[in-house]
């Protein structure tokens, strides 16, 4: 999809969001390449938080992390009021921040299990491209 953006930029921005989530106690953070099966975005970041306060902090830090990497602001954010599944739409990538219960229930990583997972070194985010 990438709206004229370089794929390496998209990976860098999505990775920055994943790192920000991880650094703020996001659990089991994944970066999944969904470009071959979805037309609406290229990547999903999936992570979870232990409680509502942590989910809000993770979302705030993802926005800041993407911005610091030179990436876009989210086009929309849904679910922030309930904080059990927050969807942050950055256009070319989407960040899903779940409560642990909702993540176990919806199992997005299983649903998209045939899609490649990009490696994340969460001590230092891997440059891929």
What does this structure look like?
The protein is built from four helices and five strands. Mean pLDDT is 91; it is low at 125-129. It has helices at residues 7-23, 52-68, 100-106, 108-111; strands at 27-33, 43-49, 76-78, 85-89, 93-99. Strands 1-2-5-4-3 form a five-stranded mixed beta sheet. A hairpin with a 6-residue loop joins strand 3 and strand 4 (85-89). Helix content is 35%, strand content 22%. Helix 1 (7-23) packs antiparallel against helix 2. The protein has 129 residues and is an alpha+beta fold. 39% of the residues are buried.
What is the gyration radius calculated from CA atoms? 13 Å
Number of strands: 5
The span between the termini is 16 Å
- Biggest sheet statistics: 5 strands, mixed
Shape: globular
Order of helical and strand elements: HEEHEEEHH
Q: Helical stretch count? A: 4
**What is the share of helical residues?**
25-40%
Q: Would you tell me the overall average pLDDT?
A: 91
Widest sheet, order of strands = 1-2-5-4-3
Structural class: alpha+beta
Identify low-pLDDT runs.
Answer: 125-129
Percent of residues in β-strands: 15-25%
